[in-house]
Specification:
The chain is built from 6 helices and 16 strands. It is an alpha+beta fold. Strands 7, 8, 9, 10, 11, 12, 13, 14 and 15 form a 9-stranded mixed beta sheet that branches. Strands 2-1-6-5-3 form a 5-stranded antiparallel beta sheet, covered by helices on one side. A hairpin with a 4-residue loop joins strand 10 and strand 11.
Length: 268
């Protein structure tokens, strides 16, 4: 992508200034969603709407007019049909000294280069860590990236998180699934349930693939035939978790990617 246009950073539909963003930068209280945009269309727009509306109500005690947000998204991509688009909701009126009550939300729409599909196998290292408010895609990303940094320093590709009960929950910025000879298994531990995960589950259900949501612990990894990571950037095979290695089943991976591709692209 060449230089991004003036619409690449919009606050409430207008060009954003440094002063406009001061509250977000200094207080760091808010939430967001990210989408891959191709030809000004996205997958799972309804899921992104649900995520933004629910989190705005929980964090700010306020409603969010998603129809207006969608108009702002359209404005941002007029000159950039292919990109990564992020919608961040915060409030310039939020008072961290007295955070009770409701606050009118502000919406920042920002663009970046499209994220290429990632397909290479991942070697991941597990860490005991449970994100605060894991059901919300909030802006508190420091521990996610710090654990990824620790994993890379240890010779791995990324971090996988465990609950205090040693249950597998999620990766740094991705969900994880496992398969046996007969079914696909999703960990039920608290985690951010990604839009890519939801879309993949729905597509596989329509295809009649048996799926289960249940606790998955490190000690039972040998019972699985394989594992994979999924987010908006694609589906990647998991080559290993700590010292446990998995064979890469290319047929399964092809089936998962084909199912993910079935989600319709909807015009913003």
């Amino acid at each position: 992508m060449s230089a991004l246009p003036a619409t690449a950073l919009l606050l409430n539909g207008e060009a954003a200034s440094i002063d406009d963003l001061r509250a977000l930068a200094l207080v760091n209280y808010g939430h967001f969603t990210s989408v891959q945009v191709r030809d000004r269309a996205v997958q799972g727009i309804g899921l992104h709407q649900q995520r933004l509306v629910a989190a705005t109500r929980e964090l700010f005690g306020a409603g969010l007019d998603f129809a207006t947000v969608r108009e702002q998204m359209r404005k941002a991509v007029v000159d950039t049909p292919d990109c990564t688009l992020r919608v961040t909701v915060f409030s310039r009126n939020f008072d961290y000294r007295n955070p009770a009550g409701g606050f009118a939300p502000d919406v920042l729409v920002s663009l970046a280069a499209p994220s290429p599909s990632r397909t290479h196998p991942l070697r991941v290292k597990s860490f005991p860590f449970l994100r605060p408010l894991p059901q919300i895609k909030h802006v508190g990303t420091f521990p996610l990236f710090h654990h990824r940094r620790l994993a890379l320093q240890a010779g791995f590709d990324d971090a996988l998180f465990l609950t205090p009960g040693d249950e597998i929950s999620e990766g740094s910025v991705w969900n994880i699934g496992f398969w046996t000879n007969r079914q696909l298994v999703w960990p039920e531990a608290p985690a951010l349930r990604g839009t890519a995960e939801h879309l993949l589950q729905a597509a596989l259900e329509r295809q009649g693939v048996e799926q289960a949501v249940r606790p998955v612990r490190l000690r039972e990894l040998q019972a699985f035939s394989g594992a994979f990571a999924c987010n908006a950037s694609g589906i990647q095979p998991i080559a290993s978790i700590d010292e446990t290695s998995f064979d890469i089943d290319h047929d399964w991976m092809a089936r998962l990617r084909a199912a993910a591709a079935l989600a319709p692209w909807e015009a913003i």
